TrEMBL record:
Residues covered by region (Disordered): 1-34, 49-76
Protein's recorded name: Excalibur calcium-binding domain-containing protein
The Excalibur calcium-binding domain, residue ranges: 37-73
InterPro entries named among the record's database cross-references: Excalibur_Ca-bd_domain
UniProt feature, compositional bias: Basic and acidic residues: 1-22, 62-76
Database matches in Pfam families: Excalibur (PF05901)
Taxonomic lineage from the root: Bacteria, Bacillati, Bacillota, Bacilli, Bacillales
Length: 76
């Protein structure tokens, strides 16, 4: 009985550590995405040649001249 309880505690602890690790990784990834910014469209297009839409973390309204919710798109 004691052995089973210890096994359960160990499993719970392992699960807690796994969740902590996942949360830390997700936070680090989100921080990296949030900090992605570009000074101008030339810089942005080096990474995103077709520009970015308004849902993209790199989107800023100052780079959306025609206000169509798409920044730094190339004229067609």
């Amino acid at each position: 009985m004691e052995r089973k309880r210890k096994e359960q505690e160990a499993a719970l602890e392992a699960e807690r550590k796994r969740k902590e690790q996942e949360a830390a990784e997700a936070e680090a990834e989100q921080t990296a995405v949030q900090t992605e910014s570009f000074a101008n469209c030339t810089e942005l297009r080096e990474v995103y040649p077709d520009g970015v839409d308004s849902n993209h973390p790199a989107y800023t309204s100052k780079m959306d001249r025609d206000k169509d919710n798409w920044a730094c798109e190339r004229s067609r």
